[in-house]
Structures
1.
Amino acid sequence: MARRGSYAKGIAKREEILTVALDLVASQGFRRTSIKDIADAVELTQAGLLHYFDSKDELWVEILRRRDELDLAHDWQAEDPAALLAAIVRHNAEVPGLVQMFVNLSAAAATDAEHPAHEYFRERYERSRRDLSADFRAMQQDGRLRTDIDPDELTSVLLAVSDGMQIQWLFDPTRDMAEHLELVARLAIAQVPPTSTP
C-alpha cells in the first residue's frame, strides 16, 4: 500500500513539474527558463527535479508533449484542417517561449538522431501529416478542396509554412503567422469559378 501511495505521489509530482514548466517557458521564454527556475517553483532541488526525467532534454520534450496534449484537447472551432492549423498558430503567438522552444529543438538539436527530441518530432510530423491529409481528402470528396491538389503535398506545404513563419515571427513579431498560413490554404481551397456564357 505504501509503495502504491508513493508511486501515485511521484506521478502527481511529475504532472506538477510539467504544468509549472510549461507555464514558465511560455511566459519567460525557453532560453530564460532554467532547470533551477523550474525546481524552485515546485520546491525541489535540481537533482530532485531531474529524478523525474532521464535528462534536461527529456524534460523539454515532455513539455512539448504536454503542449500538444492541451492543443489536441482544445476546441478550436475550426471548420477545416487549414483553419485548425491557423487557429493553433494564432494561439502560439500568445506563448512566445513555447514557440522559441519548438523552433530551437526542431530546427537544431532534434535533427540529430541521437537527441531525445528526435523521435518526438519524427512521430509528431508523421501523425500531423497523416491526420491533416485524411481531413483534406475528406474535403476533396465533398467538393471543398480542388481536385487537382494532392492532399499529402498540401499538408507538407502547410506544415512547412507554419514552421517557417514561426522562425520569421521570432525575428519579427509583427509578422502574422496565421495570416500567411491562411493565404496558402485559400489558394489551394479556392475553386475555379465556372465559365460564364455570353
Note: The chain is about 70% helix and 0% strand.
2.
Amino acid sequence: MSNTFPAASGHRHNRYLLMRHGHSQANQQGLIIGSPERGLAGFGLSAIGREQLEELLADWCWATPGRVLHSDFRRTTETAERIARHFGLWLETEPRLRERHFGAFEGEGDDRYAEVWARDADDPAHRHAGVEAVVDVAARMAGLVDELEQRHAGETILLVSHGDPLQILLTALEGRELSRHRERAPLAPASITVL
C-alpha cells in the first residue's frame, strides 16, 4: 500500500468532529493499552478525564452532533456516553475507531511508543513486534469516513477515537505521507478537531 492517501477533494457531505477520549486510567498509569482483550473491559476514564468532559460540555463551542460513533474500548465508550447523554443522542459502536494495536508492546510503559513511531517514520507498512501498520490504520479510519459520506448528508457526526488513529486519519485525509503522522501536534485527551 502507498505511503500516501489521495487528499480529500471537494466538499464533504457531512461535518465531522474528531474527538480523542478523555484522560484515561491507561494515561494515568503510563501504559500502552491497545488490545481489545484489555481495552474493552478495562482502563476507562480517570477522574481527570471525567472532569475534562464536564468542562468540555459546559463550554461546548462546536456544532451540535446529530450522531455519535465511538471505538468500543472502555475509555472511548465512557467519553461518548457522556456526550450522547448531554445531547440526548444514541450511541453507535464502531470497531474501526479502535485504538491502534501495539502488539508485543501491550501493557508496557508508554515510553515505548517512541520506538514504534521511529519505525513508522521509516516504514508506515511495518508490523514489527505485531504492531498494527500505519497503512492499515489509515485504511480502516478513512474507509469509515468514506462510508459515512456515502450513507449520510448534511449531518454533524462526532467520531470518538484514540490519539494515534486520529493523527493517522488526519494525515491520510490531508494526502500527506503516512510516515509523517507524528509530525502533527499530538491530540490532547478530550480534544476535538473539526474535519
Note: The chain is about 40% helix and 10% strand.
3.
Amino acid sequence: MSEYANAPSSDARFYAVRLKPGQDVVKELRAFVKANSLKAVSIVSVVGSLNTALLRYANTGVWAEVSGHFEIVSLVGTIDEKGEHLHISLSDRTGKTIGAHFGEGSAVYTTAEITLAEFTDLSFRRELCPQSGWEELVVEPRSSI
C-alpha cells in the first residue's frame, strides 16, 4: 500500500489579495497568514509583476537578487505560521524565463494579484528531513494538534 493512501484531506477557505507597487511579496504573505491565524496555506494563483526578486537557484544554497521588469509567470508553494516554501518563475521583456526558490526581498512593480487556499482541517509545520537535509513539510490533521 502506498504511503499516500491515508493522506489527510481537507475543506478549504479561499482568500484573494492584491499587493501594490513596492510591497514585498514574501513579507506580505507572512503578514497575511499571521494576521488571519492561518495554519495550512497553499498558493492557488498569482499574476503580476516585480522589479526585484530574491532567488535561490537549484542546488546552490546561494541567494541572488535580480533586478529589472519581470512578469510573474507562476508562484507556487506552501505557507504555515512559521515558514514557507515558495518557488517562482519570472519572465523578462524578451520572454526569457527563470525559476528558483523565492525569498524575502522582492518588490512589486505594478501589482500582484494573489489567491490563497487555507486547508481548514490541516496544519502544516516543517521539520528537518534526514534524507534532504532541509526543513521539509509535515502535514497533520488539525484535530491532532
Note: The longest helix spans residues 25-35.
